[in-house]
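Q: I'm writing up a methods section and want to include an example of the input and output format. Could you take the sequence below and give the corresponding predicted structure tokens, formatted cleanly so I can copy it straight into the document?
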Amino acid sequence: QEKEKIVAAITDSPKPPPERITLTLPVLNAARMVVFVATGEGKAAVLKRILEGDEDDALPAARVRPRSGQLRWFLDESAAKELTIPVEKHSAL
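A: Here is the clean output for your methods example:
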């Protein structure tokens, strides 16, 4: 929900590390390029929520929408397995 700061201190994250700093949505949405990387079957359900969900209280990653930049997602097949939206597939070299 941060609208002013460029970074935020996190002191009680449920996922490691519990203490860290993170870029805020204003910074990410002002970027020229934002890239997310997600791998593994354990990410499939949350990726479906982020990329296909229509929630009033969307997850933070779903609110990343660069105003004049690009947003790219790099997923492996396991992470993308629940998606019904079109995805562009590339093979590893």
